[in-house]
Write a structure and sequence with these properties.
The protein is of the alpha/beta class. Helix content is 42%, strand content 12%. The chain has 13 helices and 7 strands. The protein has a 5-stranded mixed β-sheet, sandwiched between helices. Helix 8 links the parallel strand 5 and strand 6. Helix 5 crosses helix 6 and helix 7 packs parallel to helix 8.
Length: 344
């Protein structure tokens, strides 16, 4: 740019000088703008104008590590400094700096709160692992809900027990578990029951009832819905049914009738995508084995009739022998390797 300005001042034409220097005149004009020399690429990394200097950053770290503040979290350090008429940075900036310096650890004598992932539960047949949860059902009155208690078998996805009540309580859950065990003829020690961390799930009445029934409870981590995926998926299926009343139910009796019809449809008519498109009832009673064997015969016959249309084997109609809830890392890795081998 200095050469171009010098040449133009001496009487040369700008377009000729730009051509001699092998740049476009439009490029020179863009460079001549106020911010023309800044890097405007989408992936360019720019240094913020308000970035802390090295000295400021070290001063912040020194204050956070001082004897007065070393045991306090940033949310307390910042207001305490403000009371002394001192401002070093914002609270979020202090959190970020301590995190980058690996100083944002639990401070104090007490142990930090930890929430471990639930233990892996495996089901090789029906009535071995159940999952249950409670979901809201809207009423016609804003702010008033009915509560759907629903228990399902993760192996067959069958809804084995349900009830709709006007409120949440551990007593209602205990009554549901008793009735479900009677309906399914459950023996003590046969079933593991998984749920989230809500108060009805951890209430004393339910826990005592489970102990009497010989059912071992398992709980999700707080606020981690992925720990109870089967029940969450069930509620989504229920509430996204085309016939689900979007404006809510007029009464609790109406909601019970609707849920009863849904359960009958889900268990006996719904072709579940996670079960190779058989119904939960067929999976629960092992009737799916004959159905899937017949489908395999149909596909093998079709391949023999016209093998040129099949570049690989026939569609896999085999059900998984083990259904896992909250798999650990080794199980996830093994499943990934098995999937790669099947695709290869």
């Amino acid at each position: 740019m200095s050469l171009i300005k010098e040449a133009c001042k001496a009487g040369a034409r700008k377009i000729k000088v730009c051509k001699l220097l092998q740049i476009s005149i439009r490029t020179y004009e863009r460079w001549s703008l106020a911010d023309g020399l800044s890097d405007k690429r989408a992936l360019a990394q720019h240094i913020p104008a308000n970035k802390l200097t090295t000295e400021e950053r070290q001063a912040i770290i020194k204050i956070a590590n001082s004897a007065e503040y070393c045991d306090l979290p940033p949310c307390k350090i910042i207001p305490m400094l403000a009371d002394k008429q001192i401002y070093i940075c914002s609270e979020s900036t202090l959190y970020r700096i301590l995190r980058e310096e690996k100083l944002l650890n639990h401070r104090g004598k007490s142990k930090p709160k930890t929430h471990h992932k639930p233990k892996q539960l495996d089901a090789t047949g029906p009535n071995q692992v159940w999952s249950w949860d409670i979901s809201y059902l809207k009423s016609h009155v804003a702010g008033i809900y009915f509560y759907l208690y629903l228990t399902m078998d993760i192996y067959s996805r069958k809804i084995v027990g349900w009830t709709v009540q006007a409120h949440e309580s551990s007593e209602q859950a205990a009554a549901l578990m008793k009735q479900t065990c009677l309906d399914e003829a459950i023996d003590p020690g046969q079933v593991r029951l998984h749920s989230d961390n809500g108060s009805p799930m951890k209430g004393a009445t339910l826990l005592v009832t489970l102990q009497q029934l010989g059912i071992a409870p398992s709980f999700s981590r707080p606020a981690v819905s992925n720990d109870n995926p089967y029940s969450e998926a069930m509620f989504k299926t229920l509430k996204y049914r085309p016939i689900y009343p979007g404006k809510g139910f007029a009464s609790i009796e109406e909601s019970r009738i609707w849920v009863e019809n849904f359960v009958n449809w889900y268990n006996t008519e719904h072709l579940h995508s996670g079960l190779k498109f058989v119904t939960p009832e067929q999976r629960h009673t092992s009737a799916d084995q004959k159905i899937l064997a017949n489908r395999k015969i149909v596909y093998q016959a079709a391949k023999r009739c016209n093998p040129s249309r099949w570049s690989r084997g026939v569609r896999n109609w085999d059900q998984p022998s083990i259904v896992t809830l909250n798999p650990d890392k080794s199980t996830i890795a093994a499943n990934s390797e098995a999937s790669i081998c099947c695709n290869t």
